[in-house]
Specification:
Blueprint: H1 10-26, H2 29-40, H3 50-66, H4 74-77, H5 85-88, H6 90-101, H7 104-109, H8 111-114, H9 118-122, H10 124-141, E1 149-151, H11 152-159, H12 166-175, E2 179-184, E3 189-195, H13 202-215
Antiparallel strand pairs: 1-3, 2-3
Helix pairs in contact: 1-2, 2-3, 3-6, 6-10, 10-12
Length: 216
């Protein structure tokens, strides 16, 4: 019904705000993340106090990390709301950036901070698997389309997993439609033909630009 209103109105903002609060109470991280971003798209950030900005940014950041269907952090990382956390809670911004790149080393480096947050601490195993999946996506993205036959050993090194766990990771990524391809168990190679499109951060855009220049 709200979508039928056409252009964005104050009704949209109120609706998505209430919807996000509902999903927050339910513990539905995926839906909370989705509707929180929609809410932000309907309001003027200047209408929020500094405390409100920090609270919104923190909870949306948590939902991005904990949502088992959220594998695209670019929209949140590009949002000016996140500036409110760079002083108040810089570790969560660093953690979001680490996940966006699938950086397992940074995830481990920040563990003393994020393990102090109860929801993140309770989901340590799931968070590490999610970061590994994002690491596989990043590895695939950074490969030229003509050289996406990746040895198990290279994947293992990139996501800091034992080689014998790589096959399961890739199967998980394929089942979630994060990548597409096949697994050659005999040669211990992953042949990936596609990676799910994502909103890129500045470093990823720079990397893409370098690749385009090399090809050109």
């Amino acid at each position: 019904m709200v979508d039928s209103l056409g252009e964005i109105t104050p009704v949209h903002g109120s609706f998505y705000e209430l919807s996000a609060k509902y999903y927050k109470v339910k513990g539905d991280y995926n839906s909370f993340y989705r509707d929180s971003l929609r809410y932000l798209g309907c309001i003027n950030l200047d209408d929020l106090t500094a405390k409100q900005k920090q609270e919104h940014a923190f909870h949306i950041g948590l939902s991005a990390l904990l949502g088992d269907k959220v594998y695209n952090f670019g929209e949140l990382l590009a949002h000016p709301l996140l500036e409110s956390l760079k002083v108040a809670c810089p570790w969560i911004v660093e953690l979001l950036l680490a996940f966006n790149r699938g950086d397992m080393n940074k995830l481990e480096q920040l563990q003393p901070q994020w393990c102090q947050q109860p929801d993140l601490a309770r989901n340590e195993v799931a968070l590490k698997q999610k970061c590994a999946l994002l690491g596989l996506m990043e590895l695939t993205f950074n490969k030229a389309s003509s050289s996406r036959s990746i040895p198990f050993s290279e994947v293992a090194a990139a996501v800091k997993l034992p080689v014998d766990e790589v096959e399961l990771l890739v199967m998980k990524a394929i089942s979630l439609n994060l990548v597409r391809g096949s697994i050659d168990e005999c040669d211990k190679v992953v042949n990936l033909t596609w990676v799910q499109p994502r909103v890129l951060d500045l470093d990823q855009i720079k990397e893409m630009n370098k690749r385009i220049k090399r090809v050109g």
